[in-house]
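User: Before I run my own analysis I want an independent prediction to cross-check against. Here's the chain; please return only the structure tokens and, at the end, one sentence I can use as a sanity check.
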Amino acid sequence: MKRLEPEWISYRAQVVPKAAGAVQVEECRRAFYAGAAALHNVVMTMLEPTAEPTEADILKMQDLQTELEAFALAFQQDHRRHS
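Assistant: Structure tokens:
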């Protein structure tokens, strides 16, 4: 389940200028996902090692991790094509 993509769509509609070119939109998208990845890392390192996450918590974090990994892979592939 994608949890970040709907947030990106909302962010784009509210923040990215409607007249923005494709490059500006893509750079904003990359920055958005990079921020999401940074926040994910911070949250993961802040969790108490003794606290027991619920199964639902684990699934949500796995969803985020999967989506961030897919974005990173797509970015790397795109970057290689344009290098």
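Sanity check: The CA atoms of residues 37 and 69 lie 9 Å apart.
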